[in-house]
Amino acid sequence: MMYLVAVHTGKITALLFNEDNKSVISCGADKLVVVTNWQSDCQLRRIFTEHIINCLTWDLEDSIVVGDTDGQIQVWHLNLNVPQYSHKAYQGSITCIVKASNGSIITCGKSNKVTVWKTIR
After folding, report:
1. Bridge partners (DSSP) listed for residue 86
2. Residue 67 and residue 84: Cα distance in Å, rounded?
3. Angle at 37 between CA 32 and CA 42, to 5 degrees
4. Which of 29, 35, 40, 47 allows an S-S link to 10, with CB 3.0 to 4.6 Å?
5. Non-local CB neighbours of 40 within 8 Å, separated by 6+ positions
6. In 3D, which of 96, 55, 59 has the Cα closest to residue 115?
7. Any residues with CB less than 8 A from the CB of 42 and at least 6 apart, and which?
8. Are residues 43 and 36 in contact, defined by beta-carbon separation less than 8 angstroms?
9. What is the pTM of this model?
10. What is the 3-state secondary structure (H, E, C) of 20-65?
11. Could you list the mean pLDDT of each consecutive 10-residue stretch along the chain, which spans 121 residues?
């Protein structure tokens, strides 16, 4: 084991490395999104959310798109503590979110449908 970073009090549901591979963004059952420098074990940002975030992906360099247990898709700027955009996309949880090479965001959830978002905002 190289590093052990403790940032959540419950199950971790998703994580991403940033582009320089120095920070990791994680979300969990504790309704937190945490940005951590994993090499120094230093938390850079903690965002409290209303619902459990199941999945996340990069939007822009300093923004993420998340899907939660309430079926909301949200865009979060990492320097702000409120979502820039929020939309009720599904009746059930969003379970997976991916950014395609053309910039589209693709989501799926417990509603048994896949949605391709040309733009989110």
Report:
1. 74
2. 14
3. 75
4. 29
5. none
6. 96
7. 36
8. yes
9. 0.84
10. CCCEEEEEECCCEEEEEECCCCEEEEEEECCCCEEEEEECCCCEEE
11. 69 86 88 85 85 90 89 89 87 92 89 82 58
